Amino acid sequence: MNKQIEIIGAPTAFGQRKLGVNFGPDALRYAGLIERIEDIGHEVIDKGNVESPELNMKKYKGEQEGLRNLDEVITFSNNLYEAVNETKERGNFPLILGGDHSLSIGSIAGISKHYENLGVIWYDAHGDLNTLDSSPSGNIHGMPLRALIGDGDEQLVNIGGYKNKVKPENIVLIGMRDLDDGEKQYIKEVGIHTYTMADIDKLGMDKVIHETIDYLKDKTDGIHLSLDVDALDPVETPGTGTTVPGGVTYRESHLAMELLHESKLIVSADLVEVNPLIDEYNKTAYQAIGLMGSFFGEKLL
């Protein structure tokens, strides 16, 4: 069934320290994302980019204590929350383009209020489950999922005027291969369903996705996909800020997207961490829109 898809650009770089990721939404548009989705048969509405606070270069590059760029992340998250909430109120499918992964604090805040038990598939090399106490850097792009669960700075966890957007038992992590010690401990304590790269190697992506769907389908009333391009091996997606060798292949990721499309359970998605300033001829954006083609139902035959 064809969808009405609203593209929402989320040009934030405040969650980390590498400039350029704020140009990710436009890099994805330039690479042909909208045309790719329209060719499948969907209607695409491009809402443009969410308003962002001014990027103060002196502050951005300077050393900070505590949570980096906290005020800017809060402002941006609230702006994105409003945009995504409007899309869901219209009954359309929000596709949020990033931007660093801190944007998911705002995007999922705008989605979760429309569901009793939102499920989240976090397709990423990282867990993004830190708090200030466990973070080695203070970068908020390593904290969004923990904030959405309800832990961390009170302003971050209450974006949208409410907290506890996602329950730990409604989350599946896929592609993990770079977890901080505090994240490992937390995953074990609360029992987050996790597939590391070792699990993917042993089981195969087909089994991982089918198990993920089986795990979430009866306990949730909608599933959000948050796809960080650093889940893929950096040979496939070099234009991202936190590369980790030994990642998911492009073909495995296509299969994952095809299976998620076939499940008919995904109600929204983030596509994050595309950074054209450190990319190779916009390769990462082109790879990412190829995955979105499979995600929205593109077939080889």
Can you walk through the features of this model?
- With 301 residues, this protein is an alpha/beta fold.
- It contains 12 helices and 8 strands.
- The protein is 39% helix and 17% strand.
- Strands 2-1-3-8-7-4-5-6 form an 8-stranded parallel beta sheet, with helices on both faces.
- Helix 8 (181-190) links the parallel strand 5 (171-176) and strand 6.
- It starts with a strand and ends in a 6-residue tail after the last helix.
- It catalyses: L-arginine + H2O = urea + L-ornithine.
CATH topology: Arginase, Chain A
Number of strands: 8
CA-based gyration radius: 17 Å
Question: Main beta sheet: strand number and arrangement?
Answer: 8 strands, parallel
CATH class bucket: Alpha Beta
Give the number of helices: 12
Summing up helix and strand content along with how strands pair, one would put the structural category as: alpha/beta
In short:
Mn(2+) 2 binds at residues 124, 126. With 301 residues, the chain is α/β, with parallel strands linked by helices.
Which key terms come to mind for this protein?
single chain; 301 residues; alpha/beta; Arginase, Chain A; 8-stranded parallel sheet; 12 helices; 17% strand; globular; Arginase
Provide the fold topology:
Elements: E1 4-10, H1 24-30, H2 33-40, E2 43-49, H3 57-61, H4 70-89, E3 93-98, H5 104-112, E4 118-123, H6 144-149, H7 154-157, E5 171-176, H8 181-190, E6 193-196, H9 197-203, H10 205-217, E7 222-228, H11 250-263, E8 266-272, H12 283-295
Parallel strand pairs: 1-2, 1-3, 3-8, 4-5, 4-7, 5-6, 7-8
